[in-house]
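Dear colleagues,

As part of the handover before I leave the project, I'm documenting each prediction I ran so the next person doesn't have to rerun anything. This entry is a single chain, and its sequence is reproduced below.
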Amino acid sequence: MIEKEKATLIELIETGKKTLTELIERGTKTLTEQSETTAKKKAALVQVVGMDKERKTSTEVIRHDNETVFDQSAKMKKDKETLNECIVKEKNTLLDFLEKEKVKLTKLIREGEINLTKQAEIIDKKRLTLGQFTGKVEQTLNEQAACVENMKETFTESIRKEKETLFHHTKKEFDILAEQAAWTKKENETLTALIYKEKEKLITYAERIEQVKDDWVKSVKQVEGKLSENAAKMEKETETLINQTLRIEKVKDSWVELVIKK
């Protein structure tokens, strides 16, 4: 839309310049022709009067010559008035054309200012939207980071409690088994088998805890990686929007400068 208005404005200015040049050339040509015609008539009149004066010396001839000179002077005066009227007419035509072109240019400039104002409002809205979007993204990332940190703390505390529970349970079981072994050697094999079985359970339980720990660590790392990717993507999109806004601002400044120059 702006490019089209610019082309129309340039075309109108060029048309005005061309028409003004043609009018000036036409007026100059008319004045030159009128001046040449007047000079020729004056020279012919002088020549005729001189020749008549050489041939005739009577009072009647002199009177006739005076009347001829008077008539020629009146005609020259009339031609001069006609020329002045032509000049005034051309001048008025030129002034009317310039006034119309001035009105057209003023209208186009106002329309351009209105369009630039609308573009500025759109840019401000986009800038506000971008700021709000960026704020929401930062808030979301902070909340997710806090959630991950909370999960880490919860997981660490859970592991610590499980270790304490396992330690106390194991210690208690071994104490009981030791007492039972001391009480009777007869049940030694049975107690040994029971101890081995409990040991296997404890090892399995410990392995399961380690597996759960590994799964939690892996899950946390995946969440962190995804958050990093989302943050990088949002940063790239934010940078793209900022670059587009800067380009629009540059175009706006160029148009404002162009309108001011025009």
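Residues 59-183 form the longest helix (125 residues). The chain is about 95% helix and 0% strand.

All the best with the project,
I.
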